[in-house]
Design brief:
The complex is a heterodimer of chains A (about 140) and B (about 230).
Chain A (H helix, E strand, L loop, with lengths): L3 H11 L5 H6 L9 E3 L9 E10 L8 E11 L3 H15 L11 E5 L5 E5 L5 E12 L5
Parallel strand pairs in A: 1-2
Antiparallel strand pairs in A: 2-3, 3-6, 4-6, 5-6
Chain B lengths: L22 H4 L1 E4 L2 H7 L6 H30 L6 H4 L2 E6 L2 E3 L2 E3 L2 E6 L4 E3 L12 E7 L3 E2 L2 E2 H7 L10 E5 L2 E5 L17 H7 L3 H20 L7
Antiparallel strand pairs in B: 1-7, 2-5, 2-7, 3-4, 5-6, 8-9, 10-11
Helix pairs in contact in B: 3-6, 3-7
Classes of the chains: A alpha+beta (about 140), B alpha+beta (about 230).
């Protein structure tokens, strides 16, 4: 039974080394090694974390349509690397409709450039990108 | 530029550096397509009078909507000193547009949550016709060069969820814990502006429709015409 977070995780795992996101990040993604869900661990230094949050209410006319939001959080050892990776995420994810496994889905990025959030406790820069997702609701059965 | 009273706005009213954080997510931009609206109505004998009424009612409806969003956003805004909460502001701007050879100037109205209005630049009131009305809801707090408003809005990871780690310190490895975020009271947290905005923006189309209907009714009352939507 798939869900939004798993589909996003699968999408990032499928990216090859030549994809702009991976080439700017420096490597491909591996679950719980440099790709995380909800919680961004203190290590490794370079990581991408997918954090879902509420978004807009479901559609009132087409009850199958849902509009969650997702934050992509990028932590890297240098600010330039984080910025370039974030911009590659924006370029790739905006209007992307290839993420959903068995459902229709489209992604809309909310900002044209990554947002610098802060330096974490070890002084590594953290960038965030927010997305609105529009998708047909996942089956829960 | 002086206001209608001839007095200049004070520097305190308009800080020299107004940093609009979270603007991108809260910006509510509405382009009033006057020509499309006019096509949808039966013939109007005095279009400029109608333009003015439509601009006034639409602007007031937009302000009311933004105040409502701001009210709910303030309740969710983290607080410690209260500076971030009290920085919540609504700014309305009606854009300049040349219509039929006449240029109508821009008006920038700033309204805070106590209902105080301040006109930034204007040569006429909000009753001037406008083809573009922009509303912005913003918060602002900068501390030691850090954008606190932005950080408090975008940091989704709570204190408990940010993992502890180890740091080399004078030749020894010491354990550290994620710094506890200050200022989160009950019911407050991240996305304190985006959340209320997304919850309420679905009602905005209906509010706008009502404002247009008010303008049509008032025009009919004043002109004696019977303008209707086709």
């Amino acid at each position: 039974m798939a869900n939004l977070v798993e589909d996003l995780e699968t999408y990032f795992l499928s990216l090859t080394a030549t994809n702009p996101i991976c080439s700017n990040f420096g490597t491909t993604f591996t679950s719980n090694t440099n790709l995380f869900i909800v919680v961004e661990p203190a290590s490794p230094t370079n990581s991408l974390t997918i954090i879902p949050y509420g978004g807009s209410p479901p559609d009132t006319r087409h009850r199958e349509a849902q509009y969650p939001s997702v934050q992509i959080r990028i932590k890297t050892n240098t600010a330039a690397k984080g910025y370039k990776t974030g911009q590659a995420v924006i370029n790739t994810m905006h209007l992307n409709d290839r993420v959903g496994s068995n459902i229709k889905m489209k992604c809309f990025v909310k900002s044209s450039a990554p947002i610098f959030l802060k330096f974490d406790e070890e002084d590594y820069p953290v960038w965030v990108i927010n997305l609105d997702i529009m998708h047909v609701q996942y089956s829960v059965s | 530029m002086p206001g209608p009273s001839g007095k200049m706005p004070t520097a305190a009213a308009f800080p020299a550096r107004r940093y609009r954080t979270v603007k991108q997510e809260a910006l509510n931009k509405m382009e009033g397509d006057i020509k499309a609206l006019m096509r949808s109505l039966t013939s109007i004998t005095d279009p400029m009078s109608f333009y003015r009424l439509w601009t006034e009612h639409t602007t007031r409806a937009l302000i009311a909507f933004c105040w409502d969003v701001l009210d709910h956003a303030v309740a969710r805004t983290p607080y410690r000193s209260g500076e971030l909460r009290s920085s919540g502001l609504v700014t309305i701007r009606t854009g300049a547009k040349q219509i039929s050879g006449t240029v109508f100037p821009a008006v920038d109205v700033r309204a805070d949550r106590r209902g105080n209005w301040e006109l930034r630049t204007h040569t006429s009131s909000i009753k001037s016709p406008a083809a573009l009305i922009t509303a912005e809801i913003s918060f602002e707090k900068i501390d030691d060069g850090k954008d606190i408003a932005l950080w408090a809005h975008e940091e989704l990871l709570g204190y408990e969820e940010r993992a502890a780690g180890k740091r080399a310190d004078k030749g020894r490895t010491t354990k550290y814990y994620a710094a506890k975020p200050g200022g989160y009271g009950v019911g407050t947290g991240p996305k304190y502006l985006e959340g209320p905005y997304l919850e309420k923006v679905g009602h905005f189309a209906g509010i706008l429709q009502e404002a247009t209907n008010f303008a049509i009714r008032e025009y009919n009352r004043k002109s004696g015409q019977r303008v209707r939507r086709r």
